[in-house]
Structures are given as C-alpha cells and as structure tokens.
Design goal:
heterodimer; A: mainly alpha; two-stranded antiparallel sheet; 11 helices; 7% strand; globular; B: mainly alpha; 4-stranded mixed beta sheet; 3-stranded antiparallel beta sheet; 23 helices; 53% helix; 5% strand
Chain lengths: 228, 652
C-alpha cells in the first residue's frame, strides 16, 4: 500500500482528470473522480491510529474493498464508500422500514472530512472508536451522531430528526401501532432526562453526565464490542 | 437477508451504538459467538483442484451450500479440507460469485450442466449478472425448446387407448404414422396437383377448329373439365369433413388457417352449382373461380418449407410492416416531386400524383418498365434519386427477414435430425437395457450357484466359480431376487415370455381355455408341469433332465429338445440365446447336466414353496391357481429350507 496521504492523492486526481475547477477550488462530485482509485494509508499507520489489531484490519479492509470495487465507476470511485452504499446496506438490513435518513446521518458521522465519501481510514477510525474506544469516546461519538450541525449541542429539532429517522426504520407494521407523535414523545422524554438546565439544548457535558449515571446505557454501550 | 451484505453486519451492529443513549428499554443480550475464530483460509477441494478462500468470503451468502453449515457434510477430516465431487471448471464461477458478488455464466459451459451445478450449491440462477443474463436466458430457452420438441415426439407414440377419432386425427397430422395415412397424404397431394393443373390448362387456347377462333380448352371440353373439377372438389370436401370430424377441438380447427384455405378452395364450386346461369351473377361467378387458385395453398400441408415460409412471414410481421410503411412514404414523396417536376413538359404521362405512383413504384423496385419516363431535366434528376433510394429502402429490412427464415429453418432441420437420430438412440438404449436385465437373468443362476457354493462348497470350487461380477452387480441382482421372492414371480425376458404365451395357447387343456390372456386357469395347470431338480451339491452329478410326467408327452419333448440341444457358447456377453442359459461354469459343476431356466408361466401359490419338500417329482402336484394372480410368466426357482436349489424345469 502506498503511503501517500489522502490529500496528496486527492490533488493528484485533480490534475489527472481535469475536473479541477480552479474557480471554486473544489473537487466536483464523485462522478468525475472516477479515474482515481483511493488507496488507504499503510497498515502500520492505521495500526497506530486505531485500536484494532492487524488481523482485524485485514478483515475489515477486505470487506470494505469488496463493496467499493463492485460499483460502476461513475457512481462511486473504487476505494471509497458513498452515501448510496450506506443507504443500500441499511436497506438490506432493515427491509421493513425506510432506513435512508438514518443511513444519511450515520454517513455524516463517519464522513469526518465532509467530502461526501468515506474512505477506509474514516471507516476504520469510526469503528475503532465505537468498538474499541473508551466509554467516553463512545458517548462522544454518539453525541456527534446526534449533533447534526456539529455545533456542540443537540437541539430539539435535531433530536426530532434523529428520532424520526430511527422510528422510520421500524416501518409501518409494528406492535403496538405506531402513533404519529411517538417520536415526539420520545424526544420529550430524552430532553427531560438529559437537559438538566432546561435550556432547550443538550450539551456534551449534560449528555455525558446523564449517560454515565444511567446503568442501562452504560451496559448497552459495551454490547457490540465483539462484533469484529 | 440479501446476499453480499452479510459482510457488513458487524458494521451495522457497531453503528447501533447510536441508539443506545436514546433507548427507553434495556437492550436484549447479544448472541455469543462461541467459536470466536480468526478469519481463516479454508480449502475447497473440487475433484482434485484446490481452491482456497477466506471463511468470511463464503459466509457472505449464508443461504447457499458453501455459506451455511451444509458444507460440513463434505468436510474431510484427514485432509482438513472440504471435498466436492463436482466439476472444477463450473466451480470457478460459483466461487467467483462469493468473491465478487456477481455470478457469471461462462459461455462454453453447457446450460444444463451449469444449472445442475448452481442447484447443487444452492445458488439461484436469477442472480446472474446483467452481463451474462441474456446469454443464459437465450441458451435456456433453446434448451427448453429442444426438450419440448422431444416431448412432442413422445406424443406421437401411439397411446394404448386411442379411439378411432384420435387415431384418425393423428393420421391426418402425421402421415408417417401409418400406411393408410401415408396413402391418404399422397392421394390428396395428387389431387391438389391435378386440380391446379386443370385450372391452368383450362385457360390455354386449344387448337382452333376450322370455323372457330381459338378457344380456351375450358370452353371446348367443358364437360371433361367439369367432371375433373367435380372429382377434385369431392375429394377435398370429403377430406375436409373427415378432418372436421377427427379434430379434437372443432372450433379451433375451423378457425385455423389451413381449414380456411380448404373452405375457400372448395366453396366457389358449390356457389357455382347453386347459382343459376343468370347474366348478372355469372360475372361474379367467373371472378369467384379465381379463388380456385387457393387450392395451391393446400400444398402447405405437404411441404414443410412452405409452412416455414409462412411462419417466417408471420414472425417478421413487424419488419414487413416497416418495409411497407417506408415504401409508402417514399412513394408518396417521390410521386409528388415527379409530378411537379414533369408538370411543365408537354404530353407528359405524369397526369396526376396517383398516376406518378406507378412510375415511382416501378423505379424504386428497379423494374423500370419504361412506359412512363421523365422528360425534363429536373424530372430525370429526381428520377435517378428515386431509383437509388429505392434500392436502399428495400434492402434494409430484407436481411432481418432472411435471418429469421434461416433461424426457423435450421431449427426445423435440427428437429428432423433429432427425430431421425432418436430411433437409433432409442434402439441402442433398449439394447443396453435388455442387456442389463439379461445379465441379471444370466447371472441369477450363477448367483444361486454362488450362494450354494458359499454354503457347501469347497475353496477350489469357489475359485472356479468366482465370477467377474462386481459387488455392485451382485448386490443389484440380489435385490432383484428379493423382489422376485416378494411377488412370487420371476423375471423372464421378452422372447421367453412370448414363447410362453404361444405355448400356453397351444395347450389344449380340457377344463381351461388356452387363451393367452386367460387368468387363473390355463397357465396354472397346463404349465404346471414342473420338475423339481434337486441339486444339493454342485458337484453332485445332476440327474438327467427331468422325470417328466408322461401325459405331457409332446410338450415334454419340446422342452427336452430345448434343454438338450442347448449348447450355445453362451456367456454373459451373449444376449441372443436366452432360452438356453447354460453357463460354462455351471457345466463345470454339474457335470454334463445342463440346467436351464426354462419357461414357466405360473403364479406361485405360496403353498408351493417347498418348506422341506425336497424332491417333488410328481406331476400331480398341481397347485390350485391362486385367485387373482396375473398370469405372469415366471421362472421358478426356490430354495428349500435345506438350502438346496431346486430348479424347476417346466414342461412346455
């Protein structure tokens, strides 16, 4: 694996396929980067940055690469995963409902560079936090997921969006019947629990504090540690 | 869960952490993965070729053989690999499916072999990738057509209980099934030809008589032609009525193209009969005679090529339609142009646009009669453009039609070839089958002898008796033997069976009818002359043939003759001499005496099975025919409880 930094490879691609627009100094959307294939950093580099061991990284990369090479080059350059893929994967796992919104939020959480695609480093670092991070890291990650505009606090609207997306995944056929205000009630519950100073937003400190006090949440955070 | 995404389940589970802080209820316990294996390489040995892949690759598709625990059935402990006794070439595509998520269909592979492989590995063919799916479907359709053709062949076989009507229909549809049908086929063909020739000759001017001008033959020999016409129409009518009667679905038959042609061919005659010689209608009557030419279409029943042509035209209807449409467009355009171009010239033949149609058609089809020619320069220019474009427009749809015709024609040829080959194939298969059943009958005795030997023989005899029968064969024969015992009938081959039937017919037993098909009686008694031969030891000298009952003299002789003169070089290989199944080795043991399995035609009543009955010579032992037993001929060999073989030779 080449030990090029991702920025370097990005600039290479810009020169290569003339999709570089000097005016806006932006990289056009994925379709025009089709000639490039992203390669991740070296295995050692990733070993340092994440808490996975070598074998786990190998397994993860093999699965990752398989998904990315299968696509049409126009849709998504190989080596990165785009939002469509996330949505597709989630729709397979949650066929009853509509998981596209939640997949979108998830994608935003993984796409730390905000460039519309998740490369292997992003993917593995996200997973490392979720699976091998400390409890604080995990909670931070969850907070980051909820905080849609990444401004450090969760508003009621953001939470409602998240909640609706989660409830959408359930689909129509539930027991008991899904009432229309179920997400809203849930959000109210959440805020009642988390928002200590009742200012209508939940900050990271409030969030951490409340979660650390809740036994259920603490326990459930460790539930998926062994998935890889 | 859909295929391929299984690998991402760990990710989805990990991301579920996002729900935890907002959850209302406590979470369920996660399933433990006890066999926390590291991802390992597993070896798949397919008929000697070793493929290796990660275990997780195979786990991607858990609803297939390789992805589920079903593969454990194929695990080979010694070599620590999974062994599959399948085609390694086809396995390549299967394994690539796991690796890439796409199933490809290799073009060199036979479609049914590939289907079998997919079925074995639990992969549905519908997930073949788009790149190969069309080819796969095409090949599959071809194969299906081939199978359907074969099935239709089978339908040709005469069903046992076809009534007269069905037989007739079959004779009409397939003239090769019986001689009568063939005769009918040729007769109708002949009369169609006669009718057509008559129609043609009718209009030829015969020699003029001195005072008259040339007359067409039809008017000169009116009576003769009328008789000829009548005869033909009679034949056609009879044929049509017979077909109508025999058709399984009369309504459908009446709607079919061939029947409409038949009707149109004979109707003018009847209409002509009915119509009077009225002046007004006679004109119409004359034009009606034109329809007599449709009789020529009746030939399409006789000619396959004609049918194929018709079918091709039908299947190319859209191309023909396009041809017609484009030609019409071009004609109108060019006719208009020519008309206006030639408007100026004097004495122009292009008097109107419809009049120019004729010129355009003649020019575009490159006929060029020359009756209408443009005179102005503009007219000539446009005329040449017209003829050039005509060539192009006509040439374009023609290859499509041609290729369609070629495909259908070759398909038909293949069907004919298959039909011709089928007879030979079936004959060969039949020979192989009789071969195997004869092998059983042949080795049955040897099997029996073998049994006997095992019980009582010495080692050297065993060696002498060792046959080249494989274990499989001997087990199979044992199985057939068990069936014989179960049903108390014996296997016998065709010739013997027929002979048996013949001979029982010969039997003139007073109280029974000697008919072959009679049930309880005749077979039971007249063929019950059995001589039980006791051969306790193979080495013992076998008593010469048969203490036969005297009053079955002539038949005894028959059987005696059969037995004695039977010294064929019979071997297990020879299938022809089945009457005398003497065996060399048998002869070795039973010195000189020849044990033959002759024909018996008796259902064994259970009482007959000798439990302890050793020598039962007496012919009076006439078992009461058990009720309801089918008169199946059978060879009876029973083993007495003493373990000796008693071969009964019936006196037939």
């Amino acid at each position: 694996m080449k030990s090029r930094s991702q920025d370097q490879s990005l600039s290479d691609s810009r020169e290569l396929d003339r999709s570089y627009d000097p005016l806006t100094d932006s990289v056009s959307d994925e379709g025009e980067l089709s000639t490039v294939c992203y390669r991740p950093e070296g295995l050692d580099h990733l070993l340092q940055q994440t808490n996975f061991n070598k074998k786990e990284l190998q397994v993860l990369y093999r699965g990752f690469k398989n998904v990315t090479v299968g696509r049409l080059p126009q849709e998504c350059p190989s080596g990165v995963v785009n939002e469509e893929t996330f949505k597709h994967i989630y729709s397979q796992f949650f066929p009853q409902g509509d998981s596209s919104m939640y997949a979108h939020f998830l994608f935003e959480a993984f796409d730390t560079h905000n460039n519309g695609s998740v490369c292997f480093e992003d993917f593995v670092m996200g997973l490392s936090i979720i699976l091998r991070g400390s409890i604080t890291d995990k909670l931070n990650w969850a907070f980051n997921l909820y905080d849609l505009n990444k401004d450090g606090c969760i508003t009621k609207e953001e939470m409602t969006d998240i909640m609706c997306s989660i409830y959408d995944m359930m689909g129509k056929y539930t027991y008991p019947c899904m009432k229309d205000n179920a997400p809203k009630e849930h959000v109210d519950n959440f805020f009642r629990k988390m928002d200590k100073n009742n200012d209508g937003v939940v900050t990271i400190e409030e969030f951490l504090e409340t979660c650390q006090k809740d036994e259920n949440i603490m326990q459930s955070m460790h539930m998926f540690d062994n998935v890889i | 869960m859909a295929a391929g995404v299984a690998a991402w389940l760990p990710f989805a589970r990990a991301a579920a952490i996002g729900w935890m802080p907002v959850a209302n209820c406590p979470m369920p316990v996660a399933p433990r993965d006890h066999s926390k294996r590291q991802d390992e390489l597993i070896i798949l040995n397919v008929s000697g070729r070793r493929f290796q892949t990660w275990r997780t690759t195979l786990d991607r598709y858990p609803d297939t053989l390789l992805g589920s625990s079903e593969k454990e059935f194929f695990y080979n402990e010694e070599n620590k690999e999974y062994f599959f006794d399948r085609d390694p070439d086809a396995f390549r595509s299967v394994l690539n499916f796991y690796r890439t998520g796409k199933l490809h269909y290799p073009r060199y592979e036979c479609i049914s072999a590939y289907d079998e492989e997919l079925a074995f590995f639990g992969i549905i063919p519908e997930i073949i990738g788009d790149c190969c799916y069309e080819e796969y479907k095409d090949r599959k359709r071809e194969n299906l057509e081939r199978l359907q053709d074969d099935q239709e062949e089978n339908k040709d076989m005469k069903l046992p209980n076809m009534n007269f009507r069905e037989t007739m229909w079959r004779a009409f549809e397939n003239p090769h099934t019986s001689t009568m049908a063939l005769v009918f086929y040729y007769v109708t063909g002949f009369f169609i030809a006669i009718s057509v020739i008559t129609n043609v000759v009718e209009t030829v001017p015969c020699g003029a008589t001195a005072n008259q001008k040339d007359m067409p033959c039809g008017e000169r020999y009116t009576v003769a032609f009328f008789c000829m016409d009548t005869a033909c129409v009679m034949i056609f009518t009879v044929e049509y009525l017979m077909r109508l009667f025999a058709a399984p679905s009369r309504y459908r038959f009446m709607r079919s193209v061939m029947s409409i042609i038949d009707v149109v061919a004979i109707l003018p005659y009847y209409i002509g009969l009915v119509m009077t010689n009225n002046e007004d209608v006679s004109g119409a009557f004359v034009t009606l005679r034109v329809f007599r030419v449709f009789r020529i279409f009746k030939f399409s029943r006789h000619s396959q090529g004609l049918r194929i042509l018709g079918y091709t035209l039908k299947s190319c209807a859209s191309e023909l339609g396009f041809l017609l449409f484009s030609l019409t467009m071009a004609i109108i355009i060019f006719a208009t142009v020519m008309f206006y171009a030639e408007k100026g010239s004097s004495s122009s033949k292009f008097t109107s646009i419809p009049a120019s149609f004729w010129y355009t058609i003649v020019t575009m089809t490159t006929l060029g009669y020359g009756d209408m020619v443009p005179k102005t320069i503009a007219g000539k220019i446009f005329g040449s453009i017209c003829s050039l474009s005509g060539v192009l427009v006509i040439a374009l749809p023609v290859p499509v039609i041609v290729s369609n015709f070629s495909r259908i024609y070759h398909q038909n040829q293949r069907a004919d070839k298959r039909r011709a080959q089928k007879k030979a194939r079936l004959a060969r298969i039949r020979i192989a089958k009789t071969g195997s059943s004869n092998a059983f009958l042949q080795s049955k005795r040897n099997g029996l002898l073998n049994e006997l030997l095992e019980l009582t023989g010495t080692e050297e005899d065993e060696q002498k008796l060792t046959k080249t029968t494989s274990l499989l064969e001997s087990q199979h024969h044992h199985l057939l033997h068990c069936l014989e015992k179960t049903t108390a009938h014996e296997f016998v081959d065709e010739q013997m069976f027929e002979q048996n039937c013949l001979e029982t017919a010969l039997q003139s037993y007073p109280s029974r009818s000697p008919s072959i098909s009679s049930h309880d009686g005749s077979m039971g008694t007249c063929c019950s002359r059995r001589v039980k031969r006791n051969t306790p030891l193979p080495n013992a000298s076998v008593p010469p043939a048969h203490p036969v009952p005297t009053h079955q003299g002539p038949l005894q002789e028959l059987s005696a003759i059969r037995i004695q003169c039977g010294d064929p070089p019979s071997h297990t290989a020879s299938r022809s001499n089945l009457n005398l199944k003497t065996d060399d080795k048998g002869r070795i043991n039973c010195k000189g005496g020849q044990i033959t399995t002759a024909i018996i035609s008796l259902p064994t009543p259970p009482a007959l099975t000798p439990d302890g009955d050793g020598l039962h010579g007496p012919p009076q032992r006439r078992p009461p025919p058990p009720p309801g037993h089918p008169p199946a001929p059978s060879i009876q060999t029973t083993t007495s409880s003493a373990g000796t073989n008693i071969v009964k030779v019936s006196a037939l």
